[in-house]
Design goal:
alpha+beta; single chain
Length: 224
């Protein structure tokens, strides 16, 4: 059963576990979060229960995802993501490095094919690409790593992962970008902690949070 973090007449937010793709992939036999959540809600509330997907998290990233509950909510939710009116906050565990308490990275990212991994990845570029901007804050330093908060102000694929990796601060457990391999992380140590926005219908400030999952809490003990 997936945990529901927020719900009103227009939106529903739920907690995505690590290891599930956000949406259906080419492999139709492979489970995905959106399809399974929708099945769970339809089993509880009836086969006509409506749910629409508007954003994604990487397969191995856990945390908050928000959905539209009716057609009236689709355009306002899509608009908030398009205009970056939803503040996303993430927590991640990275390699230990001397850094200021807060810092920002602004550059341009472009897709490249990694033929060795047989995957598409992102890389900073001096010509072309799309603007990528992330604010970072050091939360806590441990013996073997750091807990870092990231707030992406743009929505590029793998944005937080590549911004940290290119600063030699790869997130533990990353299977695409360079990171420390020891201690061994159970998965990508990246969690979507919260979403904040002004509700487009009620105009009330909303903050939806998902607590740091157990596997990340346990890995923090290892890093200490």
């Amino acid at each position: 059963m997936f945990k529901i973090l927020f719900e009103d007449d227009w939106f529903l937010a739920a907690e995505k576990p690590a290891g599930l793709p956000s949406q259906a992939t080419v492999d139709k036999s492979r489970p995905d979060f959106f399809t399974q959540l929708k099945k769970q809600l339809q089993a509880e509330r009836g086969a006509d229960f409506y749910l629409a997907l508007h954003h994604r998290l990487d397969r191995d990233t856990s945390g908050v995802m928000i959905f539209a509950k009716n057609k009236e909510a689709n355009d306002p939710l899509a608009n908030m993501f398009k205009k970056h009116l939803i503040q996303k906050t993430y927590r991640c565990l990275t390699r230990n490095r001397k850094m200021p308490e807060t810092w920002e990275i602004q550059n341009h990212l472009a897709e490249v094919k990694d033929h060795k991994l047989k995957k598409t990845k992102m890389k900073s570029t001096t010509s072309g690409g799309d603007k990528a901007h992330t604010k970072f804050r050091l939360i806590e330093k441990f013996k073997s790593g750091m807990l870092v908060e990231a707030q992406p102000l743009t929505g590029r694929m793998h944005q937080i992962r590549v911004h940290l990796a290119e600063e030699h601060m790869g997130i533990f457990g990353d299977d695409i970008y360079p990171c420390n391999k020891t201690p061994v992380a159970p998965r990508l140590m990246l969690h979507a902690l919260s979403l904040e926005f002004t509700h487009p219908f009620t105009h009330v400030p909303i903050k939806i949070e998902s607590a740091l999952p157990e596997d990340m809490e346990e890995f923090i003990k290892t890093l200490r």
